[in-house]
Amino acid sequence: MTLRAATRGSPLARLQTELVAALLHEHVEALVVETTGDRRQDVPIHEMGGQGVFVKEVQSAVLDGRADFAVHSAKDLPSAPTPGLVIAAVPERADARDAMVGSTLAGLRRGAHVGTGAVRRRAQLAATRPDLEFGELRGNIDTRLRKAGEFDAVVLAAAALIRLGRTEAITELLEPSVVMPQVGQGALAVECRADDARVRSLLAGAQHGPSRRAVDAERAYLAALGGGCDLPAGAHAVVGRGDRVRMSVVLATVDGSVVVREEGEDDDGVALGTELAGRVLART
Fold this sequence. Notes:
This protein is an alpha/beta fold. 31% of the residues lie in helices and 24% in strands. The chain is globular.
C-alpha cells in the first residue's frame, strides 16, 4: 500500500515525515507543500498571526484528498482542532528543551545580542537576563545556523538539531525552569481526515501513549489560555510514576517583566492543563 504524506519542504520536515513512515512500515510518498510561513521569511511569525502559518496549506492538502495524512511539528499546530481533521498519532517525543548555540546563557556578555523569533523565548530570557538584546531569526535550521555568527548566540529547539545530526552546535540545553519549552516542542503530530478510518487505523501504529498524553495536556493548557505561538507561554508535561501527568507551565509579559509559573499533577492531563491555565490567568 502507498500512502501520501503532506509535508513542508525543509530538510527537517522531510526527515520527520521519513521517521513517521518508518514507524508505519508502509510505503509513503511525500507531497511537498509550501506554507505561508515558508514564503514570508522576512516577517516575524507573531506578525503573521502566529500559530498556523506553517500548517494551514499542509492541512488543506489532506482535506482536499491530495494527501492521506500530514506530519507536523506539534508546536506548529493551533491549539484548537481543525474541522475535518484529527491528530491520529503522536510518536515518541524527542528532547523538548531549547538549546543555546554560540554561547551558554551565563557566558553571554552584558548587552549581548541573541537571535530568536519566539516571543516565548525572549520573554523568559529577558526575565533572567534583562540586559540582553534580541534580534529576529527566521529560516530552516541550516539557515539559522549560518546566521548564528551574526549574533552572540541563537536559541533553537534541541529536537531539531538532534534529528538533523547537528548536536555539535549545541552549547547549552536550557532547562524548563529557565526557559519553558513551547507547547508540543520536540513532538510530532500526525494528522489525517477524521472520517478516514483506514488511515486512522494505520497511523495508530505510530502512537506513543505517554508522549500523546503529555502533548494533549500541554495543548489543553494553551487552548484554555486562548493563544498560540505568538503568546509568551510555554508548558512541559511528562508521564511519571503511577501513570500520572506532571506539568509545569509559564505565562509572561512580552518584555519578561512578569513571569508567572505554575505546576501540578493529575491522572487526567487535559484536566490538568485546563486547571493550570486557570491558575495562571488568576495571577495575571
